[in-house]
């Protein structure tokens, strides 16, 4: 309502109110703002909103959910609406002049207008109460002021509200037009009014962009929902206490908690309904190049938005459509086209106001991001970003022809996380100047700027989220991974950098990989990064396919090689620069000779001593780490855009990537679980829907801390390989059970109260680095300092709790002799000695009081700067006391004292009788009966010094939090070490109690160490159960445990497993993925587990089911060693029977006679059982069943799920068809045909005694070698050629099988 607007008192004429944001993109003519010379009577009457104490406050902006606790719904009652403007008999009844009669209680609650003669203005309010004794009524005005009035003596008018509200105005539906907004009135207290005056949202000079703010434009004649209309702020005249002095005061209108839209979707329609196509930023497409966010005008949007915005966008924003070009004016077809930028035509730029130009300047450089544009207390979204806000955040469009919506500052974290989780990149543009600072800059520097300064303060994506409700609820890490590659013939070299920004964990590695990218696949399956950073057009096709296949829809970012994705040399320079700068800051805080000497030695060491050990080792490694350092460079460049690079490096926890390559598995300390093993054994994700239900991780996860859960995942992905490490961990787990279990449970109970300390510490560390949104120049209205203080005190409490819990658990060391637990729980050994540090902070200030008050009052000795300021204040106060004694002695009266009158302190109060003895330099300030009060020159000088000292004291209090956090961060290594120890103990206790959740007998596995290299690896178990499956999850049945023995002296190393369909073969194989319940379990160390089971394909990567199967098999053939464990389930099903059987037999032959590893091979090729029945290295077994005859001679099979010696004669597939519900006629026909096939092909000649001659073995070896070569190079050749090679190879294998069978 531009016509009813006043300028705020003391505000610059350049500054308009928050409600002017709606005209941000408007260039239409507007009415001038109200000036102080306009008719105050008309202004007051037109701007006074209707007040009803029972009314319901309506939101003023978009109803984005607030994180605060909502008020009870029953307290929000509907309130009457006052329509201002529009000369219609339906809008309001005319004001009724009051009669000269006496008014009593009958007028209480009525609306009234009272005329103030000195102000020459009418003021509206309502009669609140009536006092019978005085005959006066208490009138509460709409600005919150109250006055007792004799109505009979005042000039008053009654306001009769005949129309309570209009639900909706429809075009052509009435004979009048509403030109003003329906104002929902809420009388706020003075405290709220003063708080709202601090809103700098009215910071823009919209100039010619102002427009009339009517809810119904007479030209557009839009249909609007009046109930949801509201204003953000309103300026109302403040009564001058009948003195004639008027001033303005800005106050809030609307609800306290939620902010609604000033414009709702037409007809109340849901804006999520599709209806038209218009510009919109979509989540990044992970299958295409980075930054190709769709901003074209062909993206579907809701029907109401289509009607409102499509015409304008098609006309004014043509440069977003077919005419689109990047900042360098390149078209989309250009190979160097940059979709992240946009060229703005000069004519369009000239037509913009200063505020519009500022927004478009940011947007044109970041077209792949959604802008959160700060305006006062609100974040605004304009143009295509407004469509995203309406679609994804359920924000409502503001009125006007330009798309616009927003939300309050308090909802920032919630809405930021929502968009980032959905795959959007969010650019946070913050105010770095207040309107007052802008006006001062204009006056002092002659600046012509009409808008406050704004700067980019954050870029937030899936991988850079550091706060949010969903992040807090989910303990899983959200990894960002940078990948670079060097292809040299068949071998590949990968450099990777993996970052968990929320915990500042950085994993670096460089490794050789095979043509299948097995190592990279393993890493991706384990970590499941949510965001990928890669050099543009540098990765091979196979690597791109692996990134697609083994991730779950990550956000992909492509950086320009060298320029953005730095090489090793530039990375080292940047890293050294950051650490040297951090070191200089540390040195500036101390001046001891030891520190100066250490810094000099660092400089002499080429700056490497500044670096963490892991980084220094990588730099010294030269070419052997160049790709890892380049990956770190790509990560740092990317994080630099998000203002996270310096904080991350300074407090990062660096790790070298373990088991990064597979060339020398034996030397590695971990068992290798590749991507196929992780997926097929369902370690972290089930095969049904990809969640945790039914996984080994879910079964073993009884951790009570979020950081403990993350450590357990790491342990499961990399089990120890060396016998000593395994036994050490087993000993620690056993020591936490039995008699020590009560201590373990008490430890868990204490830790259950902990927040996610790993993330909380990272958050506190980031506060110490004043950059991004933490920078001091950023204008924030929420109490950011109080939130930071609460996080700091929470971190202190958490560290104290962890220290106490570990100390209590240390009591078990008296009755156990476990080296690992002794290391973890002994202070000064693995457990850091942090008690002196915690004592320092406990003595520094009251944690509880600071957390509740939001202010730190340091105790004496805690802060040198504050202590110095306090000392100076006390010295001056002592001088004043000493001076008082001198004046008493001078005047000869001990009754002379200091008094305070108003704002004047330390007034020397002298009895009237001594006035003649007062020195001439005494300055009389005030008096009272019998006394005179003076200031002397000395007192005035001391007061000046005291004022300055108290100012310095207050200033030191403001900065005390930053100084204390700085001191806290100096011990960041100890805090991280404490978290690491706590997490390890949490995981050990989780494993200790996990056996209680198994079904059946349990035992500690016996790990067999090899006395010599000729020892045959073995695996034996009795009553081997399943770690996850239980009777209660199997319906009526129960899980059947089995005995197994393979390997070792005199035992077959391989099991050839046959049996009926659904007989439990695959389930039996899956039991080998981890330690499982059993009466006895013995195992020689396993260096790697290979698992191939289940029919699946990778269509997106261009792989069929059969090709996927052979690709995984090829990795097994090339990488398995004698210590490996192999599980193959029905290999060869994806092709013809003869070809599949030939490949299956060749693979089995390779594992049994060449690799000589342990394993199991399940199959329905019963010919294999015949061929291997005389082989001593293969044990024929089957899953037992009972067969009976049903209707029509159809076999009915009862599954016994018991591992039994010998081969199974057939697979009984028709029985599965019966269970699936096929008709009896089909089943009977299938049974007959099955018998025909068995009669035709089922008779086999008895093989000669020596089937496997040396010649046949050599031929099989050659065949296997060819198979490996074809599969390994299948992606390097044309598809038709690969298939042709496989067909030839299958024919050769079939011939070889026929020769062996004759």
- Percent strand equals 15-25%
Rg measurement, Å: 40 Å
Structural class given helices, strands, pairing?
Answer: alpha/beta
What's the shape?
A: elongated
User: Which spans have pLDDT < 50 for at least 5 consecutive residues?
Assistant: 1-100, 163-203, 205-279, 286-299, 590-604, 661-667, 1060-1075, 1097-1102, 1243-1254
Kindly report the average pLDDT value.
Answer: 75
Number of strands: 40
Helical content band: 25-40%
Number of helices: 38
- What summary fits the major beta sheet? 7 strands, mixed
Cα distance spanning the termini:
99 Å
Biggest sheet strand line-up? 26-36-37-38-34-39-40
Biased composition (Low complexity): 23-32, 45-54
Function: Component of the post-replicative DNA mismatch repair system (MMR).
Domain DNA mismatch repair protein MutS core: 691-1032
Biased composition (Polar residues): 1-22, 33-44
